[in-house]
Design goal:
There is one protein chain. The chain is mainly β and about 400 residues long. Among the domains are: about 90 residues, Thrombin, subunit H (Beta Barrel); about 90 residues, PDZ domain (Pdz3 Domain), CATH 2.30.42.10. It contains 6 helices and 24 strands. The strands form 6 sheets. A 6-stranded antiparallel β-barrel has the order 5-6-7-10-9-8. Strands 11-12-13-16-15-14 form a 6-stranded antiparallel beta barrel. Strands 18, 19, 20, 21, 22 and 23 form a 6-stranded antiparallel β-sheet that branches. α1 packs antiparallel against α3.
Length: about 400
């Protein structure tokens, strides 16, 4: 990845935000202009010198939002085990496997730091540790929100021995993602991949600092996709969707580190150890890029809020035949004074659709609670006592 000028000093979140909001950002050191994603950029263009504005070499957002997209400029070359007939071809599977893993390690170890944090004061102060991944050359790192919980600052230690003080730029406990901002320049930024392209059985490599052992590398496969990870922040709770399950060994201290594909692209941020041979990682995809962009530019990620508790509920055959749908979101709780309460939703109702979009589980509903929906009036299609109802609700902002 190309970098900004050596005297960039501390990263400039405002400059990052300008690029993140979809404007073309002309890096004088880059061979090509940054390409925005298919949604289309804002019409205004701007130029500048901060090469670090290209977090993953290309960002965009609809008005008022921030999204990080993948790069077409600095996408890494596939790490090949060797050409046919060479000593590293498929006739030597162990060596081919080793070539891939060592190639990923060589690419990513310089980009993964050990994070040292402290929380509390005096005799109650506690020290913590985890990992973080450099995502811009001028000092932005992504890590897990629980790694920096209760802390505002700490130290990032890179593989080359650099110790960089950092401050927490923003954290989103409901996705278990955080961004920290270190003082530095010309840092080795990792390339973000796309977890939506993963398949079960695919090779993945984890890089982190388990048990304080810096630069540790483990390898395994994608054991499963589409797992769910419950998270909570204050009174708010959320399910992180499409979590990656892997058998690559993860231990305390791996949290916040990188899970990479065979090309060395970061496709997940390691977040939890659910058991022996069972590690979980938050995927890098469209949703998480949007969260990271908001944390970099605003320090927080805003969500809309309906105010119900519930989940998947199958419909009786007679009702399913009437509404041409087999399931919906069953309402088990309505929060007092919430948009749901104001709309007339009741415990026992089943929500079939919002603004014409079918719902079958809480994840479907959650995906609609984005920042652009705050203040928006939505139409709810509901089944109550076997009868269809249309209700409307004006969504509020989720407060922890």
């Amino acid at each position: 990845m190309q970098v900004g000028p050596a005297d960039a000093g501390r990263p400039d979140p405002h400059r990052h935000a300008a690029a993140l909001r979809g404007r073309h950002f002309d890096d004088r050191h880059a061979a090509n202009p940054i390409r925005t994603a298919p949604h289309g950029p804002h019409p205004a263009d701007c130029t500048g010198e901060n090469g670090a504005a290209a977090v993953a070499r290309g960002m965009l957002a609809p008005p008022g939002n921030v999204v990080i997209t993948m790069s077409a400029i600095s996408a890494p070359t596939e790490i090949s085990p060797g050409s046919p007939g060479s000593p590293g071809d498929a006739t030597e599977p162990l060596d081919a496997y080793s070539r891939v893993v060592t190639g990923v390690a060589r690419r990513l170890i310089p980009s993964v730091a050990a994070l040292r944090v402290g929380a509390g004061q005096g005799s109650r102060r506690r020290e913590g540790a985890g990992s973080g991944v450099v995502i811009t050359p001028d000092g932005f790192f992504v890590t897990s929100a629980h790694v920096v919980a209760g802390s505002r600052r700490g130290t990032a230690v890179l593989a080359d021995g650099q110790e960089l003080p950092f401050e927490v730029q923003g954290a989103d406990p409901l996705s278990d993602l955080a961004v920290v901002r270190a003082t530095g320049s010309d840092l080795p930024a990792a390339v973000l991949g796309d977890a939506d392209q993963l398949i079960v059985g695919q090779l993945v490599v984890a890089v982190g600092n388990p048990l304080g052992l810096a630069g540790s590398v483990t390898a395994g496969v994608v054991s499963a996709l589409g797992r769910s990870l419950p998270t909570r922040s204050g009174s708010a709770s959320r399910i992180v969707d499409n979590v990656i399950q892997t058998d690559a060994a993860l231990n305390p201290g791996n949290s916040g580190g990188a899970l990479a594909d065979s090309s060395g692209r970061v496709v997940g941020i390691n977040t939890a150890v659910a058991g022996v041979g069972l590690g979980l990682a938050v995927p890098i995809n469209v949703t998480t890029r949007r969260i990271l962009g908001a944390l970099m530019s605003e320090g927080r990620f805003r969500r809309a809020y309906l105010g119900i508790g519930g989940g998947y509920r199958p419909l009786p055959p007679r009702v399913a035949g009437q509404v041409h749908q087999n399931a919906g979101v069953g309402v088990t709780e309505v929060v007092p004074a919430s948009p749901a309460a104001s709309s007339g939703l009741q415990v026992g109702d089943t929500i079939l659709a919002i603004d014409g979009r079918r719902l079958e589980n809480a994840g479907d509903l959650q995906k609609l609670m984005i920042s652009e929906a705050i203040g928006k009036t939505i139409l709810l299609k509901v089944v109550r006592d076997g009868q269809e109802l249309d209700l409307s609700a004006t969504l509020a902002e989720l407060r922890e």
